Amino acid sequence: MRIRIRNKRQMWLFIVGVAGISIAASELTLLLLYLSLGDAAFGKENAYLTALVVPALVALPICYMTARMALQLSNAHSRLKELAHTDELTGLINRRSFFESAEIMLSEARDDEAVLSLLVIDADYFKQLNDTYGHATGDAALQFITEQLNSSVRKTDLVCRLGGEEFAVLLPDLSESEAEKLGTRILKRIASRPMFWDDKIIEMSVSCGVADTRVGHDMTTLFKAADDALYAAKASGRNRQVVFSEMAANGRAASPPSARVKLHG
Question: Which one of the listed residues 88, 103, 113, 165 is annotated catalytic?
Protein backbone atom coordinates (compact mmCIF):
# COMPACT_ATOMS: atom_id res chain seq x y z
CA MET A 1 0.00 0.00 0.00
CA ARG A 2 1.38 3.39 -1.03
CA ILE A 3 0.13 6.56 0.63
CA ARG A 4 -0.02 9.56 -1.72
CA ILE A 5 -1.22 12.98 -0.59
CA ARG A 6 -1.34 15.47 -3.46
CA ASN A 7 -3.69 18.19 -2.18
CA LYS A 8 -5.44 19.54 0.94
CA ARG A 9 -8.56 17.47 0.38
CA GLN A 10 -6.53 14.25 0.42
CA MET A 11 -4.64 15.54 3.47
CA TRP A 12 -7.87 15.99 5.44
CA LEU A 13 -9.18 12.63 4.24
CA PHE A 14 -5.97 11.08 5.55
CA ILE A 15 -6.33 12.86 8.91
CA VAL A 16 -9.96 11.79 9.27
CA GLY A 17 -9.05 8.23 8.26
CA VAL A 18 -6.25 7.97 10.80
CA ALA A 19 -8.50 9.46 13.51
CA GLY A 20 -11.22 6.96 12.61
CA ILE A 21 -8.81 4.05 12.77
CA SER A 22 -7.53 5.29 16.13
CA ILE A 23 -11.04 5.59 17.54
CA ALA A 24 -12.01 2.17 16.20
CA ALA A 25 -8.85 0.63 17.66
CA SER A 26 -9.58 2.24 21.03
CA GLU A 27 -13.17 1.03 21.06
CA LEU A 28 -12.18 -2.49 20.02
CA THR A 29 -9.45 -2.64 22.67
CA LEU A 30 -11.81 -1.51 25.39
CA LEU A 31 -14.45 -4.00 24.24
CA LEU A 32 -11.96 -6.87 24.29
CA LEU A 33 -10.81 -5.87 27.77
CA TYR A 34 -14.42 -5.76 28.94
CA LEU A 35 -15.21 -9.17 27.44
CA SER A 36 -12.08 -10.63 29.04
CA LEU A 37 -12.25 -9.02 32.47
CA GLY A 38 -15.81 -7.77 32.76
CA ASP A 39 -16.43 -4.67 34.88
CA ALA A 40 -13.11 -5.29 36.58
CA ALA A 41 -11.38 -4.12 33.40
CA PHE A 42 -12.14 -0.56 34.41
CA GLY A 43 -11.49 -0.99 38.07
CA LYS A 44 -8.63 0.54 39.94
CA GLU A 45 -6.62 -2.66 39.94
CA ASN A 46 -6.60 -2.82 36.10
CA ALA A 47 -6.19 0.88 35.43
CA TYR A 48 -2.52 0.51 34.55
CA LEU A 49 -3.27 -2.38 32.17
CA THR A 50 -5.96 -0.39 30.36
CA ALA A 51 -3.76 2.68 30.18
CA LEU A 52 -0.97 0.60 28.63
CA VAL A 53 -2.92 -1.58 26.17
CA VAL A 54 -5.17 1.08 24.64
CA PRO A 55 -2.45 3.61 23.66
CA ALA A 56 -0.18 0.82 22.44
CA LEU A 57 -2.78 -0.61 20.06
CA VAL A 58 -3.92 2.82 18.91
CA ALA A 59 -0.35 3.94 18.28
CA LEU A 60 0.49 0.99 16.00
CA PRO A 61 -1.53 2.05 12.92
CA ILE A 62 -0.58 5.70 13.39
CA CYS A 63 3.13 4.88 13.67
CA TYR A 64 2.93 2.54 10.68
CA MET A 65 1.31 5.16 8.43
CA THR A 66 3.64 7.91 9.59
CA ALA A 67 6.75 5.75 9.13
CA ARG A 68 5.59 4.61 5.69
CA MET A 69 5.01 8.17 4.58
CA ALA A 70 8.44 9.19 5.89
CA LEU A 71 10.03 6.31 3.95
CA GLN A 72 8.21 7.29 0.76
CA LEU A 73 9.31 10.90 1.16
CA SER A 74 12.90 9.79 1.72
CA ASN A 75 12.84 7.55 -1.36
CA ALA A 76 11.28 10.31 -3.45
CA HIS A 77 13.91 12.78 -2.25
CA SER A 78 16.72 10.36 -3.10
CA ARG A 79 15.26 9.74 -6.54
CA LEU A 80 14.86 13.46 -7.25
CA LYS A 81 18.42 14.09 -6.10
CA GLU A 82 19.66 11.32 -8.38
CA LEU A 83 17.70 12.70 -11.34
CA ALA A 84 19.03 16.19 -10.66
CA HIS A 85 22.65 15.01 -10.90
CA THR A 86 22.53 12.04 -13.28
CA ASP A 87 21.91 11.54 -16.98
CA GLU A 88 19.14 8.99 -17.14
CA LEU A 89 20.22 7.34 -20.41
CA THR A 90 23.90 6.75 -19.65
CA GLY A 91 23.99 6.84 -15.85
CA LEU A 92 26.80 9.41 -15.99
CA ILE A 93 26.64 12.65 -14.06
CA ASN A 94 24.97 15.45 -16.00
CA ARG A 95 26.40 18.78 -17.15
CA ARG A 96 25.28 20.75 -14.10
CA SER A 97 26.73 18.31 -11.60
CA PHE A 98 29.91 17.98 -13.65
CA PHE A 99 30.60 21.70 -13.68
CA GLU A 100 29.87 21.99 -9.95
CA SER A 101 32.28 19.15 -9.12
CA ALA A 102 34.84 20.39 -11.63
CA GLU A 103 35.01 23.84 -10.02
CA ILE A 104 35.76 22.22 -6.65
CA MET A 105 38.44 19.97 -8.14
CA LEU A 106 40.00 22.89 -10.00
CA SER A 107 40.07 24.99 -6.84
CA GLU A 108 41.82 22.17 -4.96
CA ALA A 109 44.29 21.69 -7.82
CA ARG A 110 45.07 25.43 -7.79
CA ASP A 111 45.66 25.39 -4.02
CA ASP A 112 47.92 22.34 -4.35
CA GLU A 113 49.63 23.71 -7.47
CA ALA A 114 48.61 20.50 -9.23
CA VAL A 115 47.83 19.94 -12.89
CA LEU A 116 44.44 18.79 -14.15
CA SER A 117 43.34 18.00 -17.70
CA LEU A 118 40.05 17.90 -19.56
CA LEU A 119 38.89 15.82 -22.51
CA VAL A 120 35.84 16.95 -24.46
CA ILE A 121 34.60 14.13 -26.68
CA ASP A 122 31.96 14.14 -29.39
CA ALA A 123 30.49 11.22 -31.38
CA ASP A 124 31.19 11.56 -35.09
CA TYR A 125 28.32 11.71 -37.60
CA PHE A 126 25.80 11.14 -34.83
CA LYS A 127 22.98 12.95 -36.62
CA GLN A 128 23.57 10.71 -39.63
CA LEU A 129 23.32 7.67 -37.36
CA ASN A 130 20.08 8.90 -35.79
CA ASP A 131 18.48 9.90 -39.09
CA THR A 132 19.39 6.63 -40.79
CA TYR A 133 18.77 4.04 -38.09
CA GLY A 134 16.50 5.79 -35.59
CA HIS A 135 16.82 7.25 -32.11
CA ALA A 136 16.84 3.84 -30.42
CA THR A 137 20.09 3.07 -32.25
CA GLY A 138 21.40 6.50 -31.32
CA ASP A 139 20.63 5.86 -27.64
CA ALA A 140 22.38 2.50 -27.84
CA ALA A 141 25.39 4.22 -29.42
CA LEU A 142 25.60 6.71 -26.53
CA GLN A 143 25.43 3.86 -24.03
CA PHE A 144 28.15 2.03 -25.98
CA ILE A 145 30.42 5.09 -25.88
CA THR A 146 29.73 5.42 -22.15
CA GLU A 147 30.83 1.83 -21.58
CA GLN A 148 34.09 2.46 -23.45
CA LEU A 149 34.76 5.63 -21.47
CA ASN A 150 34.08 3.97 -18.13
CA SER A 151 36.39 1.10 -19.11
CA SER A 152 39.20 3.50 -20.04
CA VAL A 153 39.35 5.95 -17.14
CA ARG A 154 40.49 5.75 -13.52
CA LYS A 155 38.17 5.76 -10.52
CA THR A 156 39.34 9.26 -9.66
CA ASP A 157 38.37 10.65 -13.08
CA LEU A 158 35.07 12.44 -13.57
CA VAL A 159 33.05 11.32 -16.62
CA CYS A 160 30.04 13.30 -17.80
CA ARG A 161 27.49 13.42 -20.57
CA LEU A 162 27.35 17.10 -21.41
CA GLY A 163 24.28 16.68 -23.58
CA GLY A 164 23.41 15.21 -26.97
CA GLU A 165 26.38 13.19 -28.20
CA GLU A 166 29.00 15.19 -26.27
CA PHE A 167 30.95 13.88 -23.27
CA ALA A 168 33.64 15.24 -20.98
CA VAL A 169 36.29 13.61 -18.79
CA LEU A 170 38.08 15.53 -16.06
CA LEU A 171 41.47 14.06 -15.22
CA PRO A 172 43.10 15.09 -11.92
CA ASP A 173 46.91 14.93 -11.74
CA LEU A 174 47.31 14.32 -15.49
CA SER A 175 49.16 16.73 -17.73
CA GLU A 176 48.00 17.56 -21.23
CA SER A 177 50.45 15.06 -22.76
CA GLU A 178 49.29 12.30 -20.39
CA ALA A 179 45.66 13.14 -21.11
CA GLU A 180 46.46 13.00 -24.83
CA LYS A 181 47.61 9.40 -24.43
CA LEU A 182 44.36 8.51 -22.69
CA GLY A 183 42.37 10.28 -25.41
CA THR A 184 44.23 8.31 -28.06
CA ARG A 185 43.37 5.04 -26.29
CA ILE A 186 39.71 6.05 -26.11
CA LEU A 187 39.60 6.92 -29.82
CA LYS A 188 41.23 3.63 -30.78
CA ARG A 189 39.03 1.63 -28.41
CA ILE A 190 35.78 3.02 -29.84
CA ALA A 191 36.89 2.86 -33.49
CA SER A 192 38.14 -0.72 -33.16
CA ARG A 193 35.13 -2.16 -31.29
CA PRO A 194 31.99 -2.23 -33.43
CA MET A 195 28.64 -2.06 -31.67
CA PHE A 196 26.22 -4.94 -32.18
CA TRP A 197 22.65 -3.69 -32.28
CA ASP A 198 19.43 -5.07 -33.77
CA ASP A 199 21.25 -7.68 -35.89
CA LYS A 200 23.57 -4.98 -37.24
CA ILE A 201 27.23 -4.20 -36.73
CA ILE A 202 27.77 -0.45 -36.41
CA GLU A 203 31.26 1.01 -36.53
CA MET A 204 31.66 4.41 -34.88
CA SER A 205 34.29 6.95 -34.05
CA VAL A 206 34.64 9.99 -31.81
CA SER A 207 36.67 13.18 -31.89
CA CYS A 208 38.41 14.67 -28.89
CA GLY A 209 39.80 17.97 -27.67
CA VAL A 210 42.41 18.12 -24.89
CA ALA A 211 43.51 20.94 -22.60
CA ASP A 212 45.06 21.25 -19.14
CA THR A 213 45.18 23.83 -16.38
CA ARG A 214 48.07 25.74 -17.92
CA VAL A 215 45.31 27.75 -19.63
CA GLY A 216 43.75 28.54 -16.25
CA HIS A 217 42.27 26.96 -13.13
CA ASP A 218 38.69 27.99 -13.82
CA MET A 219 36.20 25.74 -15.60
CA THR A 220 35.07 28.35 -18.12
CA THR A 221 38.59 28.84 -19.48
CA LEU A 222 39.55 25.16 -19.36
CA PHE A 223 36.35 24.00 -21.04
CA LYS A 224 36.61 26.60 -23.80
CA ALA A 225 40.17 25.49 -24.57
CA ALA A 226 39.23 21.80 -24.78
CA ASP A 227 36.05 22.60 -26.72
CA ASP A 228 37.99 24.73 -29.23
CA ALA A 229 40.38 21.82 -29.69
CA LEU A 230 37.41 19.50 -30.24
CA TYR A 231 36.01 21.77 -32.95
CA ALA A 232 39.42 21.78 -34.61
CA ALA A 233 39.40 17.98 -34.55
CA LYS A 234 35.95 17.95 -36.14
CA ALA A 235 37.02 20.45 -38.80
CA SER A 236 40.10 18.34 -39.56
CA GLY A 237 38.03 15.32 -40.55
CA ARG A 238 36.85 13.63 -37.34
CA ASN A 239 38.06 10.43 -35.62
CA ARG A 240 40.99 12.41 -34.36
CA GLN A 241 42.28 14.34 -31.40
CA VAL A 242 43.60 17.89 -31.14
CA VAL A 243 45.65 19.16 -28.22
CA PHE A 244 44.96 22.78 -27.35
CA SER A 245 48.57 23.82 -26.73
CA GLU A 246 49.66 22.41 -30.12
CA MET A 247 46.70 24.03 -31.84
CA ALA A 248 47.56 27.37 -30.24
CA ALA A 249 51.19 26.98 -31.30
CA ASN A 250 50.78 25.97 -34.94
CA GLY A 251 47.08 25.72 -35.69
CA ARG A 252 47.02 21.95 -36.25
CA ALA A 253 47.92 18.67 -34.58
CA ALA A 254 48.94 15.25 -35.83
CA SER A 255 45.90 13.01 -36.19
CA PRO A 256 44.75 9.62 -37.51
CA PRO A 257 42.57 9.35 -40.64
CA SER A 258 38.87 10.15 -40.60
CA ALA A 259 36.21 7.43 -40.38
CA ARG A 260 32.49 7.67 -41.04
CA VAL A 261 29.86 5.57 -39.30
CA LYS A 262 29.71 2.20 -41.04
CA LEU A 263 26.96 -0.40 -40.94
CA HIS A 264 27.19 -4.09 -41.74
CA GLY A 265 24.37 -6.60 -41.85
Answer: 165
